[in-house]
Every structure is written in C-alpha cells, then in structure tokens.
Q: What sequence folds into this?
C-alpha cells in the first residue's frame, strides 16, 4: 500500500508567484516571458536567483527545454523535473518538487513557464504542421480532427447525448468566466458576453463555437515552492500544499474509455485523500477551462456535482460571481487568457485568492482552493489543494 | 525477435493498402485491441494475432469540423465503437455531416487512394435517420 501521501500535507508552501506579459507581449520570446515571470516570482518570495536550487519547467515545442532554461537563468539546480504532460504539467510538478524538498535534495524549487504563442512570428499553422511530423497520431490525424478542439467537441457531444446537457449550459460556462473577468483588470477579454452571444458566435467544431474555446494569448507564469518552516520566515503569507494528485489514462481522445469521465476522478481523489478534505471543504475552484465542456467535466469529476448534473449547476448561476462555488475567479482560459498551457496560471490565481489580494474578484474569506490542470485532449489531469495557515 | 514485416503499425497499414481492415486479438485474455499494439493493453501479453472484424459499429461521439466551402466544406469526425468492443476515430462518408448522429449503425469500408488505404465508415441501410 503506497499510502495517501498524507505525511507531505502542509509541509510545503508556495512562497512566491508572478505573471509577466499576459495578454499580448509583441516581440518577446517564450524564454523571455518565462525569465521575467521567474525573476518576479523569486523576488515575490523574498529570495534571489542564487537561492533557487530546483527547477521544474516544460515547453510545448522544445524537447530539451529545461537545459536552455537553466542556462538562461544562470542557476545550478540540484533538482530538475521537466515532466511534460501538457497544460497540467505545472500543477503536476508540485509532487516531484515536494519529494525533492522533503528528501533534502534541494531547498527552493522554481516552477516556470512562458509562451509567446499569440504574437510569435512562428505561426500556429506552422507549429501545427511541425507537430504532425514530430508527434504523429496515425490513427486520428488521417481524419483531420481540428485538434485539440475537435476532441473536446466529441466529449461535449457525448455529454449532451448521455445527460441532456445543452449548448446553452455550455455557453453559460463562458458567460460565468466572462463575469469574473469583468472584475479582473488583468483579464484579456472583459466585454459583456451573453449566452446568446456565445450561441451565435462562429461554430468551429460542433457543438463548440469560438466562444466555447479558450483565448490565445501570450504570457509567462512562475511560482516558488519551499518547505513550510522557511516559508513562514519569508515576506508573503504562505500558501500551503495540502493535497496533490496526477493521473494520465490516455493520449488520444479515441483511446478514452468514457468521454464523460476524465482522469480527474483519480487525480482529485488522490488530492482530496492527501488533504483529508472533500469538495465541501473547498472555497475556490480554479479549473482549467480550455473549452466550456472542461469546466462541466471537472465540476463533476472533482465531486462538486453528480455526473451529468454540471450543466444544470452552471445554468443556475452557481459558478458565477455571487454563486455557491467561485470558479475561475480570474476569468479563466476562456476570458483571462490562455498562453498555450494554462495550468500554472490556475495555480497562481489560487494563490492570489488565498493571499487575499485578488482585488474586485476576491472571494471573501477564502481559505482553501482547488487548482486543476488538464493536458492534451482530456489526456492528463493534475489536481492540487492549496490552503492558508487556517486550513492546516 | 524482430518481425521482418515491420512493427504492427506498418502491418496494419499494409493490410489497409491491400483493401483489408484487420485488428488484433489477445490470445491470452481474448480482448480485441485497437489501435494496433506490440502488447495487449489489457493484460500485457505479447501473444497477439490479427483478424478481420465484422466491420459493424455504432457512432459513439460526433463532431462536424467547419471548413470554408472553397477549402472543401464541413466534414464529419466520429468516434465509432466496433461490435468487437474497440473504439476508433473515423468518418462517415455516405451522409451529410449534420446527419451523423450518436447511436447510428455504421459499417467499415477501406478506400484505397494511390495505393494508400484508409478506414472509413458508411451509415448502414435505413440507419441514416
């Protein structure tokens, strides 16, 4: 029996976070955005780059990404983890980072990411073509699914078929995200958005429209993880890692056993078990919303709704500002922004809420947050439960 | 021992190129397997053999990818469950994309274009409602 890793609960804390260049950062490279976010996160933690002796990072294009990152930052890490499981990677990095801190292998882990995908001179069409060559999926690509979106569209079609979920309910996910974004000056899209606006926007891969899809923005994000005793001596209020779990069940959408049940059931179960908590103990949820269907699936798979009931839950206004469960309080990938792999930004928003400095979008009295990352085409899922000192 | 015909991906495609749709079955646990693999994902066995499935299946999930008419127009992408209990991605060729529905009965066909075989599906007679 491997146990529930309860011995790691609350022993590590996020001491620094930062974003840089989110939205549009014309003329910047992925590395430059990462480096600025890293520099700011380390400063936010009250540390210097010399204190960083552990690194976790991942890139959607560079296969050896950790090496140029080490070189660029001028660090000499004793611990490196470059696990790449798509957008959930930077939440998944928490566990190896905690294990490395626990063993004494290192003392301060920097987790960092940057993407210039919106304004990069390398077009997404060119990147798409390169991926077909570098990472072939010979049993899907011949049918020209518009990946990743068509994979999520297939999942949405199944959710609608099995549970009667409607396009209006999917649209409400985007509307709720926008309502949160309107409270956040850092969000990229803040114009008013209605359910009808979503329904009438351009259909891309049925039943998903362009407004059911996340934005394409630039941005860098970083956080610093240290042992809890050290975090208490640093300037920011520590945000403790109470639980963590990661699960991968497949790569291709066609290999997924049930398109309405994701591996978040496993990652969430593991994270809750480690934290000794359940969905009722969560004050804020940051759920990687690459597409509107994601939010519904994760609300269900992380236990906030019974399977099949998330559409109605969302339609009743539960995840909007003022609802029973604040979800994607920065505006999410749908309206805050989506620099390619969003997971680290979900984690950073969770920290912002728990520090109590989320401005107009602050959830009053938030002591616990679940931050959930998704990668590939519903392929990887990683969940972390974060908390303030009051949640220990 | 290395198979002189190549790995299972090459063998699968070579059959398609000759107009045949073949998938694997595990000789130990009996599971049908798709996509082709060097080991059974159910039990780990390496003792697998090829067979011709019935080709009968049901649409499990469906999307229409929107594309400008001048680029060829909208097209269907479906996930199909074969009656042998495997799932795969393909498209339904004899129905308009908006007519393809979850639960529709479909049948496999292999099209060969300039020597390259591709698995596609047709809605079965009377099923395209």
A:
């Amino acid at each position: 029996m491997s146990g529930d890793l309860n011995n790691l609960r609350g022993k590590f804390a996020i001491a620094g976070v930062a974003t840089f260049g989110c939205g549009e950062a014309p003329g910047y490279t992925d590395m430059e955005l990462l480096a600025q976010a890293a520099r700011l996160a380390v400063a936010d933690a009250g540390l210097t780059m010399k204190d960083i002796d552990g690194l976790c990072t991942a890139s959607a294009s560079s296969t050896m990404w950790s090496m140029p990152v080490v070189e660029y930052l001028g660090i000499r890490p004793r611990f490196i983890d470059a696990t790449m499981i798509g957008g959930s990677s930077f939440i998944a990095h928490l566990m190896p980072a905690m294990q490395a801190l626990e063993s004494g292998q290192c003392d301060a882990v920097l987790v960092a990411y940057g993407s210039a995908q919106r304004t990069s001179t390398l077009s997404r069409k060119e990147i798409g073509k390169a991926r077909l060559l570098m990472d072939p999926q010979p049993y899907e690509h011949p049918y020209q699914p518009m990946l990743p979106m068509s994979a999520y569209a297939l999942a949405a079609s199944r959710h609608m078929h099995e549970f009667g979920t409607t396009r209006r309910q999917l649209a409400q996910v985007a509307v709720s995200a926008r309502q949160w974004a309107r409270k956040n000056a850092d969000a990229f899209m803040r114009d008013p958005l209605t359910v009808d606006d979503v329904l009438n926007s351009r259909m891309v891969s049925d039943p998903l429209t362009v407004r059911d899809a996340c934005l394409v923005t630039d941005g860098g994000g970083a956080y610093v993880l240290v042992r809890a005793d050290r975090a208490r001596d640093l300037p920011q209020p520590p945000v403790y890692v109470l639980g963590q779990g990661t699960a991968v069940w497949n790569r291709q959408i066609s290999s997924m056993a049930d398109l309405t049940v994701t591996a978040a059931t496993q990652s969430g179960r593991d994270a809750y078990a480690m934290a000794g908590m359940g969905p009722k103990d969560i004050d804020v949820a940051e759920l990687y919303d690459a597409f509107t269907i994601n939010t519904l699936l994760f609300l269900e798979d992380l236990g906030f709704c019974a399977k099949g009931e998330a559409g109605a839950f969302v339609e009743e206004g539960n995840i909007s500002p003022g609802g029973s469960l604040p979800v994607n309080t920065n505006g999410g990938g749908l309206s805050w922004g989506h620099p390619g792999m969003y997971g680290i930004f979900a984690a950073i928003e969770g920290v912002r809420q728990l520090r109590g400095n989320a401005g107009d979008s602050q959830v009053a009295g938030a002591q616990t947050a679940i931050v959930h990352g998704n990668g590939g085409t519903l392929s990887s899922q990683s969940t972390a439960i974060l908390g303030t000192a009051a949640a220990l | 021992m290395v198979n002189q015909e190549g790995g299972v991906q090459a063998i699968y495609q070579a059959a398609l190129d000759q107009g045949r749709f073949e998938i694997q079955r595990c000789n130990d646990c009996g599971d049908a397997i798709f996509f082709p693999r060097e080991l059974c994902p159910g039990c780990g066995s390496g003792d697998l053999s090829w067979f011709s499935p019935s080709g009968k299946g049901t649409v499990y999930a469906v999307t229409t990818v929107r594309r400008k008419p001048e680029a060829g127009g909208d097209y269907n992408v479906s996930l199909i469950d074969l009656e042998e209990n495997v799932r795969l991605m393909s498209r339904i060729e004899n129905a308009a994309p908006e007519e393809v529905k979850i639960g529709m009965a479909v049948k496999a066909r292999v099209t060969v274009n300039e020597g390259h075989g591709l698995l596609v599906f047709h809605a079965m007679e009377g099923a395209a409602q």
Summary: The radius of gyration of chain A is 19 Å. The longest helix of chain A spans residues 30-44. The domain at 6-119+215-391 of chain A is CATH 3.40.47.10 (Peroxisomal Thiolase; Chain A, domain 1). The interface with chain B takes residues 138-140, 142-146, 150, 153-155, 157-158, 161, 202-208, 252-255, 259 of chain A (CB under 8 Å).
